[in-house]
Amino acid sequence: MLDIHKIRAEFPILSQKVNGKPLVYFDNGATSQKPQVVIDAISKYYQEINANIHRGVHTLSQLATDAYEISRVKIQHHINAKHLHEVLFTSGTTHGINLVANGFAAILKPGDEVLVSALEHHSNIVPWQMLCEKTGAILKVIPMNQDGELIISAYESLLSEKTKIVTVNHISNALGTINPIKYMIEKAHAVGAAVLIDGAQAVPHLKPDVLDLDCDFYAFSGHKMCGPTGTGILYGKESWLNKLPPYQGGGEMIKEVTFEKTTYADLPHKFEAGTPNIAGGIVLGTAVDYMNSVGFENIQQQEKELLAHATKQLLEIEGLKIYGTGKEKASVISFNIDGIHPYDIGSIIDKLGIAVRTGHHCTQPIMNYFEIPGTIRASFSFYNTKEEIDLMVEAVKKAKTMLS
Ligand code: PMP
């Protein structure tokens, strides 16, 4: 059980007022708030050990390097990667996906197929389209149904020996659907295809086990799991990371440089060109420790109750429709009210201190599927409460009355 008062006290921003009202923060899908330990760890780094890493012999450089590499070990254990060098620091999910898509340009041939799902964020669509344009490979889409679930039988029919990579999110940011990725990975492997999982929306809710999933790549962002912005991780299986060419050239990623030829550093440095976000990488480890100290069982229990409470309360509003009604769902509710633009509701409830997301959530194909311009998305975190949901429901009712 969570001690919700203690938890909320750890997030200074949550006691703020916005527009004169207590902040109700339900935009966790966009980015999470940060606990004091994370905020403190950032300033501690700059106050005490700021130095460039991996190259200095002086004490501060050693301390910063050790802290950065200890963070990598924490993340390795957190996601259960077999090897430490399979854990690459990135600036976020987008960076990780682009790194892999760029690498596949060296592997794909015209006529090869890339499968993306209908539920993807733009950052897990566009890099693959760019890859297909570059290589002559063909992009195919795993379709979804009206509940916002992937149609797995259609997925199985799309898979063939032409499929070289399948890319799908663990949890949809727009609808909250939890995809059956373990099964999908198994099926892709049966035809010899690699699988990239976009874990951006999963890591705030669960601890991914990359060995058990047997995925080839798993990308996520730190800022959605209580960590700093501009941080992320790409897990890649050693065999794949050895096969892919480097993404960017520069310092740190080389073994030897001459004007005739450059040889590349071993993993993970081959993919970590330039000075990284050192403070961010270190503090991502602090965030992972924090999430584990709260406990993912507790997080899931709290979020499950919030989801059930909000779903029930919202559905009592006449004309309100929820998108994403599948059985396996994270604590995200996307909804609209008949005849009212989502932006108008979002703007009015913002005046009442309630932060939700409105729009297409970087998932225009999902909005096109439902033939809507966008939705209002409330995404809950373990630090949210049922009382906050009640405030949102009251605010939505008020907005509806004003706009009808
Ligand atoms: N994929 C999904 C499912 C997301 O929700 C997001 C962030 N909204 C991203 C990818 C991109 O993450 P980032 O902007 O942190 O790179």
UniProtKB/TrEMBL annotation:
User: Which cofactors does the annotated protein need, by name?
Assistant: pyridoxal 5'-phosphate
Gene3D superfamilies to which the protein is assigned, alphabetical: Aspartate Aminotransferase, domain 1, Type I PLP-dependent aspartate aminotransferase-like (Major domain)
The family database entries (InterPro entries) matched by this protein are listed as:
Aminotrans_V_dom (IPR000192), Aminotrans_V_PyrdxlP_BS (IPR020578), Cys_dSase_SufS (IPR010970), PyrdxlP-dep_Trfase (IPR015424), PyrdxlP-dep_Trfase_major (IPR015421), PyrdxlP-dep_Trfase_small (IPR015422)
Q: Name one GO molecular function term.
A: cysteine desulfurase activity
Q: What reaction gets catalysed by this protein?
A: (sulfur carrier)-H + L-cysteine = (sulfur carrier)-SH + L-alanine
Q: GO biological process: any one?
A: cysteine metabolic process
> What name has this protein been given in UniProt?
Cysteine desulfurase
Q: What is the lineage of its organism?
A: Bacteria, Pseudomonadati, Bacteroidota, Flavobacteriia, Flavobacteriales
